[in-house]
Amino acid sequence: MKFFIDTANLAQIKEAHDLGILDGVTTNPSLMAKEGIKGEEAIINHYKTICEIVDGDISAEVLSTEFNAIIAEGQKLAAIHPNIVVKVPMIKDGVKAIKWFTDNGIRTNCTLVFSAGQAILAAKAGAAMVSPFIGRIDDSNWDGVDLIAQIANIFSIQGFKTEILAASIRSSLHIVKCAEAGADICTCPLDPILGMLKHPLTDIGLAKFLEDAKKM
Ligand code: G3P
Description:
11 helices
């Protein structure tokens, strides 16, 4: 399973990259706004900087919702760097745009996916990645990890090549459960990634080894 970091924060992207386990980055308008990135030029420059830090897939989301505008915006984003994956929302014009981008050699990540039906449509349109938002599904009293397992099963039966990118990850346990359920990629904030390092028995064991090492 690949690890992406789900942030537009450059310090956090660098920290995850320095850990040596980072395969890519996902952003969205909320994450860009959180970093105070405003205006087309600033947005493009921010993506350029992220591409310089991480040599992997970088999802850049379109803000348009109408077919022609999505295409124009996606082409601009894709021109920033060969690693840019154009992130397109799961709406009717979005699916049409995903098909257009696929036919024109531009990779896409279909975002805001909350059902297996939506994932199938995105895969049929040729999306490189499909992003089920598992935390938000949990928030609405459904099981987000179950959706990952269902989509993984369908894609395996049907031979879809679209990668399942588990998004809206809230905890280290989510990451483990998504790995178990067949996600190809997990995109996570930094804390759940770092949380995977932790176990109290590791700390106790290391303290004992270091203490005993003094007697050697
Ligand atoms: O990858 C999607 C993610 O940014 C949404 O996360 O926590 O706002 O549901 P959250």
